[in-house]
């Protein structure tokens, strides 16, 4: 930790008018049982009070808040004869919390700071008993059902976006590390004419948070979206940059023709990345009413949405991996770490579920992806319009992959692709209030009406696979709908 920040933090805590439910000052009382109960109580009380951290401070008088110094050495304090206090405390608290003892050489004396994260997933218990702080008392939480209920209501699961990418940054460092002008442009807000106005807006979207000593914390959300250089932050965040590789052939053994490792935050670099991809894609010629028209091999809307989907829905807690885009001669593969929260076959019709709701919300505000629940519909629809094979949405061990395929006629599609195209077509028809029929599937697959039996065979295979069903068993010609409809 930063020693200057710890001194500023202690001074800010000393400036509080009195001890609080989330703050306690101690002299040299180092009784382990007392510390264990206080850890539980302060963690739970901090969450009730809407604070992210609670603190115990040794070496500060609880009445005057003057620095008196302490002889407490937490790393050498033994409990039960052979276990150091931090390890004993970690084993006694459930669920485990990332508390931190820090010895601070304050200008006025030696101080020990115990920083305690607020409860997140469940009340924090010491030896199986959760406590709460009320005034100067530390009773059992269960003895105060109204406070217990309030704590349960305020408990929130951990959000990676709320973590800190940089602590104790000066205002100048914030403005140098984040492309704040892009934030205002993309969110369509006027750029304030003063620093205070800039910081207020960034803080309102939780891209930065106020720290001690008139400094700032840059959140993971702020860094991953608006970093000028992700490498300026922790290595684990820098590895979340987008990686692009293009191959001369149809597999990874082919020669690499282009490679790009993203350096900027997602919002700052998104438009450039999509433009770079579209510029590399080969073009197909379509004959319109009078002129030949060149179109990219893959629909731009599909690329844009699938890239945004990979950024938004990745599991940020998977270390050493980030979104990856690979361009082959016949397909485009877009993958991201983390298994999806919705089954791939239901991603078109079910509302999306994201681990990164703040990231998703802000990217939608900046119009980098479609409105909630409509993106993948448009991807599948675009593939139909261009008469491309259906996209493949595939969940693997701890990752998700979306594959766009280049143009191939019905005869060149695999049986699985034909069934997937039939299923997706039935889903799109159902979502538009219609039903799939043999004739509409012929149009989707480019089958001439005289060869309608080919579409019938695909429908029968898809029925056997349980992906679709007859809409009305009493009227089989009424059409087909997804099996879950």
UniProtKB/TrEMBL annotation:
Species the sequence originates in: Piscinibacterium candidicorallinum
Keywords linked to the UniProt accession: ATP-binding, Nucleotide-binding
One Gene Ontology molecular-function label: ATP binding
UniProt keyword Nucleotide-binding, yes or no: yes
Domain of life (superkingdom): Bacteria
Protein name: ATP-binding protein
Domain Schlafen AlbA-2: 19-140
Pfam families in alphabetical order: HATPase_c_4, SLFN_AlbA_2
Keyword Nucleotide-binding: yes
